[in-house]
Amino acid sequence: MNGSIMKKSFLILIMTLATQNFLFAEAVSNKSYKKRIELLTYLRELEPIVKNFRGEDPEGNPAPLNAAEGKEGFRLKKYLEAKRIYQEGLQYYFEGNYVASYQRFLECQLGVEKMLEELSQVYILRAEEMMKVAMERKNANNPLDKALLDISIEYGKGSYFRSDVMDQPREAPFSRRMYDAKEVHYVYNKYTIEKNMELGYRHLGLAKDARINALKVERNLEKHQKLQPSHRKFRIENYFGSISLSRDSKANAINIYKLKYPYDNYFLNNSQAKSEPMRDENGNFSESQPVKVEGVTYDFSNNPYIRFDHRLQAMFDVRIPEEYRVDYADTRGRIYEIDSNNMVFLKYDQERKKALNIPAKPATPAGNTQAQ
Questions:
Q1: What's the pLDDT tens digit per position in 287-324?
Q2: 288, 277 Cβ separation under 8 angstroms
Q3: Which of 102, 103, 316, 321 could anchor a disulfide with 32, C-beta 3.0 to 4.6 Å?
Q4: Alpha-carbon distance 51 to 116, whole Å?
Q5: 226 touches 220 (CB < 8 A)
Q6: How far apart, in Å, do the first and last CA atoms of the chain sit?
Q7: How far is 138 from 146, CA to CA, in rounded Å?
Q8: pLDDT at residue number 3
Q9: Residue 159 CB neighbours (<10 A)
Q10: What keywords would UniProt list here (predicted)?
Q11: What is the pTM of this model?
Q12: Where are the domains positioned within the chain?
């Protein structure tokens, strides 16, 4: 009788262990499935970021987008390594080896976290720099170029320009206009320019807070505790939040440029692709200059990919300084170099390219700052 009881107890123990193993396998498969979807979303979000800001190659030079293996920018190289590990995890996942799959996915998650920790700082610094530069004058030789503080002082309510010049009714043509018509946009845009400055720095402050919240996670752990996958997920989402808010800050800086320099895109409307002639303080017109976009000058108004509205792509908008056009494209989730190849150099429209006499793309475009 005792032997029978022992046999039954032994069978119950075996069944219990088998059930636990089955449940454990199911739990790992679920975790692996969730991590697979989560990481795919992260990699998709990272793609335009690392392709716009690829980093330098091993020799410290700006790396082209389609660099040879071993010559990639350091950020793009880390991204490709994360993709490789993720792909290994997928292979194990579809084989049914969920333990190995989950392990690979956790390695990929760690790589993504490290990339985003550095990239979020880069975005914050770029946004801060763009805001500071946007508030100052872009062209010191243009007498109508104003810093943001000058706009607030000279064109606000109660200012000389408003009270003694613009707001005074006059009878044309007997009374002459006592101001340059190209100054009027400062009056109409003053509030919006100031609001973009306010929002730009607010977004920048929130971006810094999001990054600090991500970094605090590890600091708040006890000595015996280690970062868990849930902690890393929290940090990654905060880093992405920081990058998104930095993009908002960059967009505010770009709006300031657009509002301050509405006449800079004059070259898009004339067949000579020249800038608009400007009048100096003595009333003399300065000679207009041909405008180059990515090293190319041609009749941009015949380019089939130009849109003369809010869809205007970053490379054609010279209101924005050249070094920040990659940021402009990035705020829209676009990859600047691909857009440039397709829309400036007409990579897939060879007939129009010949008709417009577009030269070949230079090996290293002037003002390339994409290796930030």
A1: 888 999 998 999 998 898 888 777 889 999 999 999 99
A2: yes
A3: 102
A4: 14
A5: no
A6: 79
A7: 8
A8: 60
A9: 18
A10: Signal
A11: 0.87
A12: 2-137+191-260, 264-372
**pLDDT of 369 above 60:** no
Q: What angle do CA 307, 309, 310 make, to 5 degrees?
A: 110
Amino acid at the residue 53: F
Q: Are 273 and 294 in contact (CB under 8 A)?
A: no
* Strand stretches in the chain, DSSP E: none
Any residues with CB less than 8 A from the CB of 300 and at least 6 apart, and which? Answer: 267, 268, 273, 293, 306, 316
The pLDDT assigned to 18 comes to 52
Tokens of 196: 């973009």
| Cis upstream peptide for 173 (omega within 30°) | yes
Mean pLDDT of 68-77: 92
Provide the 8-state DSSP code for 62: B
Note the pLDDT tens digit of each residue in 134-166. Answer: 999 998 878 889 999 999 999 988 888 888 777
DSSP string, 144-169: T---HHHHHHHSSTTSHIIIIIISS-
